[in-house]
DNA sequence: GATACCATGTAAAGCGTTACATGATTGG
DNA sequence: CCAATCATGTAACGCTTTACATGGTATC
């Protein structure tokens, strides 16, 4: 049950609508946690039902309304309970490594395409995360500024430091995956130039 | 739909029972792909129904039987189709980074415990993967030997090289996560020694 | 005969993806 | 008035986890 905790985490910064949460999960946050709006709106309703968030219904224009969710005392307690609790390490599922292990069943072209996409994906991710790290460092992130504004000065250092720790982790991951993709592409070049046959080739 | 392809991948090495597949997914393979038996047995039945695997029912002792699954022509085609197809990159969900980003809501003790578990988990994973890489290099893996035995000599280099590529990726990932966990533990030590308060502290 | 291992299932509940669906507001 | 954006939902389907469940075989 972590979508709930990801939503509570966002709401500890400031109250917002489901739509704003959807936007965050579509943006740079998507590389840490993401969910479609079809999952977010019902979960917010359940969190409201379970008394973890309060809702303010605010008019929007003449006829429309929007629902602004804010975390309440019970929600903050639940979030803190979750964050203090040890999250166990479960078996992973890495479809890209699974695929790479069986590239002899593919073709050089298809294998290269997959590895190139891997490289592109993590190159984009790296750029985004480096930018985010810099933005956090210079307090250019509005959500972070909101968060800092409502917490005492002496907590600021920890708040910023922990966010930076996460982003440095993502940066390290992106660099590692880029390196791995390059290694894969180099291996494919080497094997093809040696004329090593693949089973998937026509 | 990747459990199906993970199972097909295993069955390209040799025919086996659901129980043997369960064992593999519980062992060192678990760090690349894993599934509980409650997912594996029904999926094998569906694959049988869909004509991707053949089944041989073999007696076991006096009264018991076992079902040995082998991949057939259609199954191999489906596996090759999947491996040639580009797997898109979807938004990730990393609960450990999400948690780390909000450690100011935790306590030093709980945050340290989580990071220590992270370190332990990936240290174990690193040991396992280094061993597997070495075993593959020296053809000490029975599944790999079965696989090589049924393929022509000229494909052997690629088969071994792609498996090693995957394991090197897992090793790089484990090292990266170990490094990150150490960074996190160091940060926690530094903040605590400076007396920076956390919101979750009693 | 007890224990560990072999072997295979079902079922409920939860989580995630994809598609379908609707309507208001804002700015050009 | 048209397009982009704001805003919020439902539904079907598939995958994953956890729990419940059963019985044979091999070895000491």
Automatic annotation (TrEMBL), chains A, B:
Entry protein name: PadR family transcriptional regulator
Pfam families xrefs: PadR (PF03551)
Record domain Transcription regulator PadR N-terminal: where: 7-80
Domain of life: Bacteria
InterPro entries referenced in this protein's UniProt entry, alphabetically: Tscrpt_reg_PadR_N, WH-like_DNA-bd_sf, WH_DNA-bd_sf
Matches recorded under Gene3D superfamilies: Winged helix-like DNA-binding domain superfamily/Winged helix DNA-binding domain (1.10.10.10)
